Amino acid sequence: MALYDVVIIGGGPGGYNAAIRAGQLGMKTAIVEGRGALGGTCLNAGCIPSKALLHASEVYEAAATGAHAALGVLGTPTLDLNAMMAQKEAQVATLSKGVEFLMKKNKADYLKGWGRIAGVGKVIVQADDGTERVLATKHIIIATGSVPTPLPGVAIDNGRVIDSTGALSLTTVPKSLIVIGAGVIGLELGSVWRRLGAEVTVVEYQDRILPGMDGEVATTLQRTLSKQGVNFRLGCKVAGASVDDDHVSLSLEAIAGGAAETLAADIVLVAVGRRPFTEGLGLESVGLVTDSHGQIANVHFKTGVDGVWVIGDVTAGPMLAHKAEDEAVACVELIAGKPGHVNYDVVPSVVYTRPEVAAVGRTEEQLKAEGVAYKTGKFPFAANSRAKINHEADGFVKVLVDASNDRVLGVHMVGPNVGDMISEYCLGMELSVTAEDVARTCHPHPTRTEALRQAAMAADGWAMQA
């Protein structure tokens, strides 16, 4: 029986980064993954393949609609969906092999199979052929991630009714698609298929899209997506679904009251969120139980059992790959006796629609609820020269600043490439930056990043370009 310093159950962004850091710190490490490929949901059926299709569909739509005609670029494209899917799969496979290489580079044993805890310091790995291998270890890190949340009354068959994984592998473009859920996943995948030719309707229980994000940003994005052709039915409950050979009928009930109605489409995508994956993990063998949210509680990544740690989607906090990566590093460093910390106030969120949405820190709604006195600095991309000449002028940058000391408390953006630009403010907030610090930092011209500076200037009342 092999004795390890650390055994990691789950090969997603949390798990494989934990293995890398453990290897760097000289620990004898094993990572257990039952999917057959490393990278978890993010790489295999989430972040990466969805971004591949988002980019490909943007390129297709720009050509198909003549969006580049004003630039002198003309032509009529033909959609080859099989080729689009094949390039997506090829990219995923390449990246997964890259993660596997990193395991070898950092001397982590990659064990293919489903891992389960069988008592303190013991993990059993069951291979696809049913054979089992027992691992002894000083520490166990649970990094098993999450799976799509089901919706009562709407059974997912990945035929007519699909989840996010099914939406990444459709073989034909549906004439009509209903997306249940106006969160990040629903809006991104709905955008893909709308660009490729589907009539898309988004149904959301709440009366707004992107619940939990800045309200002004959500309203702006909804308005822009509506102009692009996405239909929204907000404040609606899905009471049930009926599946026929060629379509799905949903029964909708308005939350505000009124008669029920039926909405039909070729395909229905259920995108109402994700839930922690703990099935068959053997938590009972060490006396661990999940909370009311299905999560495993932690205090600085420690569970209530000595030597058992937890990171990523399976525990508290936003279900984001980069949050899991940060937790992986901090958790392993704590195991190694080093300081380990994650600043959850500076974990960014991004929606990869077009335009993109990016946010870090507190929203205006949160600051008002907390009674914090704040100032707002806002700058539109319509006044940014680079965005303007690139025909990407929708959206704005909004900076929220503590009125007492000028420290940046939150940043919320909707616009071109804001998912990349948010990192400037993440770093700044980690270093307790003030609006004046950003306002007096030279930014290259002409770039979209100048909007970040101008918004900081606006917080102190001296924006110069709008």
Itemize the secondary structure elements and their pairings.
Elements: E1 3-9, H1 13-24, E2 29-33, H2 40-45, H3 47-64, H4 81-105, E3 108-112, E4 114-117, E5 122-126, E6 132-142, E7 146-148, E8 161-162, H5 164-167, E9 176-180, H6 184-195, E10 199-204, H7 215-228, E11 231-234, E12 236-243, E13 248-254, E14 261-265, E15 267-270, E16 274-276, E17 308-310, H8 321-335, E18 349-351, E19 356-361, H9 364-370, E20 374-380, H10 385-389, E21 396-402, E22 408-415, H11 418-430, H12 435-439, H13 450-459
Parallel strand pairs: 1-2, 1-6, 2-3, 6-17, 8-15, 9-10, 9-15, 10-11
Antiparallel strand pairs: 4-5, 5-6, 7-16, 12-13, 13-14, 18-19, 19-22, 20-21, 21-22
Helix pairs in contact: 1-4, 1-8, 3-4, 3-6
CATH fold field value of the largest domain? FAD/NAD(P)-binding domain
The secondary-structure class comes to alpha/beta
Determine and state the CATH class of the largest domain: Alpha Beta
Question: What's the number of structural domains?
Answer: 3
For the record, what is the CATH homologous superfamily label of the largest domain? FAD/NAD(P)-binding domain
Number of strands: 22
Characterize the main sheet. Answer: 7 strands, mixed
Number of helices: 13
Low-confidence runs: none
The CATH architecture category of the largest domain equals 3-Layer(bba) Sandwich
Query: Rg, please?
Result: 24 Å
How much β-strand is present in the residues? 25-35%
> What percentage of residues falls in helices of 4 or more residues?
25-40%
Shape annotation: globular
Mean pLDDT: 96
User: For the terminal residues, how far apart are their CA atoms?
Assistant: 68 Å
